[in-house]
Design a protein that fits this description.
Length: about 375
């Protein structure tokens, strides 16, 4: 074989190799080829079956009014797919192939809802799947009037898990004191005191060192139809080490009024996301300006402060403050809610007190008695009306 023939053979081999690679690429091209769903009262699950894996970073979502759009890079679709859903949450799903490597998916919601998007790897003969879970609105149930006064209290130990809260020393990577541990300890003591009452059910947003998103905490109160929501914290003010004492916060009238004015506008534009979930803001979620919620939160705060002063040194109780910041747990729709700062880790005396079990018990007794007094007032109202 001369040099010219050898060159032809090499060129032909290279051409065949390129054709083979192109054919393999066409075969390997990821496409969305079907849409499935399942639905019950608690969730509607939409499943997009794919011929290959799609990294999460290539899936972008955008909420426009009541339409949730997914833009998927690196995947096409066999054709335009459309499925109408028999679901109380979702109207229909449409898959639009833009080109061979790009697809858009439109999920039409029946109302503003929260949702979760994730991928499931192929296994046991099942393909890779993009999954969209759609859940009912923030308030999934309506609370009925309790004929028998069995009251529900939700205790919320602040922070937890990856979120230590305030620490000492301040900004230390290896703190000796963490707010999350103090709040859980006080909450356990309050629960123990309230659990002695057969007419009170106590629910805690966490019972161990785990991270619970703020919206999830508020949702727990809503699902339990809580008569009182009490969030327990400890404060930190490095620039004001002289600040000390226990403070009870409630949502300010300004926040309630502002929520009422902006509910509809915000609902169209904003959604809140945490590590695993997104909530579309709805008028129901953000419109917390009802007179009842605000008035009852004030009564709950007053009862707790009164009983804290009876059990803790009067000088150590700062009284009631209006929370000016937009704190989610203070704005649980229809649920009277307060936030208690049990002391300042940046104040030397408070720091020592908060580490003492005896002082934690004094705070817990004041909180528990205040809650009992507030619930008693509800029972009196219920008896008068009944």
């Amino acid at each position: 074989m001369n040099r010219r023939e050898l060159l032809k053979v090499l060129l032909l081999g290279s051409a065949l190799e390129l054709l083979t690679e192109a054919a393999s690429a066409r075969i390997r091209r990821t496409v969305i080829y079907s849409v499935r769903y399942s639905s019950n009262g608690e969730r509607t699950r939409i499943v997009l079956d794919c011929s290959g894996e799609i990294p999460k970073r290539r899936i972008r979502e955008k909420l426009k009014e009541r339409e949730l759009w997914l833009e998927i890079e690196g995947a096409g679709a066999v054709r335009r797919l459309k499925k109408k859903l028999k679901s109380p949450l979702v109207r229909e799903v449409t898959v639009y192939p833009i080109n061979r490597r790009r697809t858009k998916v439109k999920i039409t919601l029946k109302n503003y809802h929260r949702f979760k998007i994730f991928g499931l790897k192929s296994c046991r003969g099942k393909p890779f799947r993009i999954v969209v879970d759609v859940f009912p609105e923030f308030i999934p149930i309506s609370c009925k009037v309790r004929r028998v006064p069995k009251r529900v209290v939700v205790l919320d130990p602040g922070h937890g898990g990856k979120d230590p809260g305030a620490v000492w020393p301040v900004r230390s990577k290896h703190p000796t004191i963490e707010e999350k541990r103090i709040t859980l300890s006080i909450a356990f003591k309050v629960r123990k005191l309230l659990s002695k009452r057969s007419d009170i059910k106590v629910v805690m947003t966490r019972t161990r060192d785990v991270y619970v998103p703020l919206l999830k905490r508020a949702e727990i109160a809503a699902k339990e139809c809580a008569d009182a929501f009490v969030s327990i914290h400890a404060d930190s003010m490095p620039n004001y080490p002289q600040w000390s004492g226990v403070t009870v916060f409630k949502a300010s009238p300004h926040l309630f009024a502002k929520a009422e004015r902006t509910a509809m506008a915000v609902a169209k534009k904003i959604r809140i996301c945490n590590d695993v979930m997104c909530w579309s803001i709805t008028p129901t979620l953000i419109n917390l300006s009802t007179t009842v919620t605000f008035a009852e939160s004030s009564k709950l705060a007053e009862a707790i402060v009164r009983d804290l002063k009876a059990r803790v040194n009067d000088d150590l109780v700062n009284g009631i403050r209006d929370m000016q910041r937009n704190i989610v747990v203070l704005k649980t729709p229809g649920r009277p809610a307060v936030l208690i700062e049990s002391g300042f880790l940046t104040n030397p005396l408070d720091r020592r007190r908060l580490l003492r079990s005896s002082y934690q018990w004094e705070i817990a007794k004041g909180i528990a008695k205040g809650i009992e007094d507030y619930l008693y007032s509800l029972n009196n109202v219920a008896l008068i009306e009944g």
